[in-house]
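Students often ask what a 'structure token' actually looks like in practice. Rather than answer in the abstract, let us consider Outer membrane beta-barrel protein, a protein of 768 residues. Its sequence is given first.
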Amino acid sequence: MMKRMIFTAMLLHCVCAGIGADSLTGKVTDEAHRGVAYANVVLLALPDSVFVAGTVSDADGCFMLEASALGEGLLRFSCLGYHSCTVPASGFTGEVTLREESVRLQGVEVVAERPVHQQKDGALLTRVEGTTLSQYHRINDMLAVLPGMTFTVSGGVEVFGLGTPVIYINNRKARADELQQLTPQDIRSVELITNPGARYDAEGKAVLKVYTLRRDDGHALLAEHVSEQGRRYSDYETLRYDYWNRKLHVSAYYQYADYRSVVNQPQSHELALGDSLYLYRNPDQGDRRDTKQHTWYANADYELTARHVIGAKVEGTHTRDYTFRTGNLAYGWSHAPLAEKDIDNDYLNRTDVYHANLFHNADWSDRLSSALNLDFVYNRNRYRQATAETSSGEWLETESRGKGNLSIASGQLAFDYRPASGVQVGFGSDVSRVHTHNELQSRADNVAASLYDEDEVRAAAFADVSAEAGDFSFRAGVRYEYMQMKFRDRLDASGNLTHRFHNVYPSASVSYKRNGWSQTLSFSSRTTRPSFRQLSNAVYYSNEFMYQRGNPLLLPATAYKLEWSISHKPFYFSASYTYEKNHLSTCHEEEAGNRIISTFCNYRRIQYLKATLNIQKTFGIWHPSLTLGISQPFFEVMYRGEPLAYNSPNCTAALNQQFTFRKDYLLSVYYAFYSGGDLGSVSIRPYQMLNLELQKDFFEKRFSVSLKAYDLLHTMKFREEQREGNLRFTQTEDYQLWNFSVSLVFRFNQLKNTYRGKNSSASDMERM
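Now compare that with the structural description of the same chain:
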């Protein structure tokens, strides 16, 4: 199938290669011969230098102008941070090089003030280079202050109301852990797309695109140490080396993390069966977690010619995760006196992940380019759980051991074709195959053994076109995906299943830009596929009354979204409506012996109305940014035989303030308030966060020190309640995120840290 798609794409290239031959195309590069993104290209008429036509280079520095307007004029190229360049249009050779500009007066660097955030075809483009955002030490701290982004209760970041975004680094699809390998000083700009089009994988409700900096040739070294003291002590060490010359780039990375934490997670369950009410309460449940992780990668890419780049990357992660959980479970029936049981759990997970990528990027002509990526991933997991339950002198011991192997093979071929000025056509295909083998054994009769395989084959093709006409720009596209999923139970063939899906995902947008105003109306359709853990039918033991397992019958969810966004100078506003069918969420089942099974299921539908407003402005040394957001869900479940609505809105308000002082001091104050509300079938109570950070740079920013207080008020606690089926469940997730830390970063000749290949298996790897 992949061979057929590649052949079809190459045939389309041959048909289209000769179209639009009367247009002038070219590329704007820096002194390292890397494309300069968003450079202005202007045609001026002689002899009075009157403006005739203009355009902007794309993310790779390529541009196109109509040949009929050239005559004997001049071409002027300019971009912030570079010296402008003017050349005769008739003598233009197809490539122009801009030199970096550095203007200093008495040791003080002069930086022109312009908006940090701009709207571009419905996406929110945030400039990081040359702003205070680049001075953060950690990537998550920088991302959390962007409009539409927020901290999660577990310390990560997500898009407000949309969850974790799909990540691209320099147009290469990447995993979340790859993003953590960058620092804010590596980044030129960030683009947040909350309504992605057809060229992006149909899975994922938002896309975060990160573009890194481009530097001179030579060597670069980054070394970082972080000491973090919360309830327990943790530390992280990172070392990265880069070498880049005109044709060759080599990079190597290693990080060791020793993360230790304490988690409080009290729970209660009320199970109603007929006229009886069964109570299970565990008010003292808590974890002590120790995670040691080694992460590394090595990559090299080489320019065969100015138009062809090949490369390879290998990376790996070894994780040892140990958790000791204690609790006191009180249980009873219809408010009768409760018995008690002490429960101790030992969890040990060992995981190894290996990933290899090969790529070839090509400019077949001034109008057509392509990117071919081949990926292979292998995941190996070994799991052990020992549970000891003591009640009235009785002792129950359960030990489970599991192992799993997962492999992903994938390929992706994408083309971009520019037939005329202001017009771009994209088309391509990708295929992947995922194989999973899992085993679970137990020494106790209360946990059933499992042995099963899962196979998933996915093939997709997409096409989209974008065009500009005066103050308007248009984009339309369609994506087709075929998926086949097979589940084979090696112990009971009656449980074997096969699912096949054929889906078409259209998208379209129209944008208008004039006099500083930008607005976009867009439509897209997306999907959410079950993770491999959600599809697994293996049973995970919590205690005598509570189990967890997946659901092989799960269907992908499909969402349709209509969004309007508008921006002008310091203001950015967006509003959207989303309809999602086959919504994926947690649910509960009951089994004999009053056992509660936590699993996953599809709900008929869920709907959202969402809005986000951001205001940012600079007042001297003060750089405030205020983000307000609201999400209004419309969702209904059955609870104890009656419909129950989950329609409470959830709101957020985040104020980030940065103060830049002399001698390279930076003070950051971040405060966020979350009102709570309904998230699917879960109701959340309010919580808030306050972070303080003081940074100082030394030796012309080669050495940087950061002192930080995270969650200073100790209020990042996730208190939730769920009523669904016959169960009422309450829980507090207190990850004890508060800590004080010191971060030391040393940089020698900081370079662009960019691997030019794309990861065609990233979405499958995220589902591991």
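One point worth highlighting: The mean pLDDT is 83. Ask yourself how you might have guessed this from the sequence alone, and why that guess would often be unreliable.
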